[in-house]
């Protein structure tokens, strides 16, 4: 979701483009740049305030809202508190960000397994901050939904406006490689990543809005969210194939060279057939999902997901326009 840069941000971006010698791709880079928020750890939250933006620790809830739970074969489990974001504390961006100007958004984990699985979230959005808002102590001897989000340190957050560049966009990287020179054996797409990193602020633990930019550019998380929403998440494993012919050629290779791997390959056949029949639908749906929040593993909260990986939270475009946070999608990566 692209939010235009302010004049000051544009000046910073142009200076960075020049510093990293990417002038030949300047227009393309500007087209793939967005204003966003860096959420910066501002010390441990001692719970002296109520309703402020807080990551980790315990939430501030009104009396009529219970700590969310889920029930499965193991019984009742309590959802792990991730954060509460008070939108009134956000500084203004150059134009309206589309976020609410007030109210509090709460995020909890309902389920988080491997990177192959979707993260299930529980969200609460209070449009108005109620008078009876108070700190809600964690349940006694709970069974938690997730092992990573336990005993997180309550962390105060300060939001600052900054720049996010869509470094994982394949077309942008191809354009930069084709139109900018190698410098010290580094292609322009590497320098683009350095440029994006230059806008990271110290002690940043999360981003609000902006672009996903997973560590592995092959992780097309918006596409995975789209396929999950449509109903075939497993198709994420066959996105590298453009035709059934390619799939069959690799099947023949496995049959001759690694027959023990052929059954696992054949399991994916129906998923590729589905994807080839639904590529246009997937591409359209993918464009409708945008990053809402990217929470990094960090020492401030004592949060470590997988191999120090982030949690990504996505919102559908229509829901974002309506300021509805009931159907958020979550993803994690591995390594």
From TrEMBL:
Top-rank taxon: Bacteria
InterPro entries for the chain: DUF1963, YwqG-like_sf
Pfam families from the UniProt entry: DUF1963
PANTHER family: SLL5081 PROTEIN (PTHR36436)
Protein name: Uncharacterized protein
Origin species: Planctopirus hydrillae
